[in-house]
């Protein structure tokens, strides 16, 4: 308990015990590869929060996400609200809506089928806004994907449905000023559909590259999310995953969305730029954000 109190003091966040929380037994428990997320209410503070409990064997991910979260403070990123005294749980913002992947695949709420282009591009803008800030803090996400983009809402603004976006799941993120950054950057992790070619090459093709993860690998992942936003599906879904990975790693296939009601030529060009095989040709998030801000005006 003393160690946890010292840690909470160091991070300047409250330390809660389980008796401080009322867990919502009716909410869906969300299971990740290394954690379980539950909704809870803290009566003393009138806070509705998410409690992310890490599996005990994954303490490194817990510690990494905790320290990354403390470095960040932005409207489009999940915020660290406190720690739980059990030693392996984080208390963060609760997002009342689906994650973006669920949004595309939710038949019950018909989220995507009822979406306007402005709604979709506003989501893209908010993701770029959060990522621009994250990169300004010299932090690479390394696992940006639709499953790690969380939605709050929706609300009606000028007759259009809009969502508040929060990017989360920073357990694989790396701060470039971390003394261990170089070692972390060369360890390839993440999710296949959103993985940049240079990361695939290091991980699956054994190409010698000392820094597969850069800001530009996050940009590639964003390009895949933008593809999802205009099509409602992940790219190359007809390919077997490992065949897809090898083709991307060998630069044999590229994202090439067709023009549609949600995909103007401007957005198609942006997707192609973000997912360029050569990372030096991909834009920065400041450029992406600037373009999207003009589209949603």
UniProtKB/TrEMBL annotation:
Annotated coiled-coil segments of the chain: none
Gene3D superfamilies xref list: Transferase(Phosphotransferase) domain 1 (1.10.510.10)
Alphabetical list of Pfam families matching this protein: PK_Tyr_Ser-Thr
Keywords for this protein: Kinase, Transferase
Domain Protein kinase stretches: 23-296
Molecular function terms from GO: ATP binding; MAP kinase kinase kinase activity
Name listed for the protein in its UniProt record: Serine threonine-kinase A-Raf
Organism, scientific name: Brachionus plicatilis (Marine rotifer)
């Amino acid at each position: 308990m003393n160690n946890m109190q010292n840690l909470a003091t160091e991070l300047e966040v409250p330390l809660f015990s389980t008796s401080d929380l009322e867990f919502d037994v009716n909410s869906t428990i969300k299971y990740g590869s290394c954690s379980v997320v539950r909704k809870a209410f803290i009566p003393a503070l009138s806070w509705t929060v998410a409690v992310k409990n890490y599996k005990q064997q994954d303490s490194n991910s817990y510690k990494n996400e905790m320290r990354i979260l403390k470095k960040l403070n932005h409207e489009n990123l999940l915020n660290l609200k406190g720690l739980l005294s059990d030693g392996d749980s984080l208390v963060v913002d609760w997002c009342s809506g689906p994650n973006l992947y669920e949004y595309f695949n939710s038949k019950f709420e018909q989220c995507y089928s009822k979406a306007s282009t402005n709604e979709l591009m506003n989501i893209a803008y908010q993701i770029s806004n959060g990522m621009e800030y994250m990169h300004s803090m010299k932090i690479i996400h390394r696992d940006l994907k639709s499953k790690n983009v969380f939605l709050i809402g929706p609300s009606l603004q000028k007759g259009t449905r809009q969502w508040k976006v929060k990017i989360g799941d920073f357990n694989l993120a790396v701060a470039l000023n971390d003394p261990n950054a170089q070692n972390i950057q060369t360890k390839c992790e993440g999710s296949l559909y959103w993985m940049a070619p240079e990361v695939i090459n290091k991980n699956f093709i054994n190409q010698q590259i000392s820094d597969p993860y850069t800001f530009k690998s996050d940009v590639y992942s964003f390009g895949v999310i933008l593809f999802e936003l205009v099509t409602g599906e992940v790219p190359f879904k007809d390919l077997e995953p490992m065949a897809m990975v090898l083709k991307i790693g060998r630069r044999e296939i590229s994202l090439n969305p067709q023009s549609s009601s949600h995909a103007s030529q401007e957005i198609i060009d942006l997707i192609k730029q973000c997912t360029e095989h050569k990372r030096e040709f991909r834009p920065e998030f400041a450029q992406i954000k600037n373009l999207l801000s003009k589209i949603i005006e």
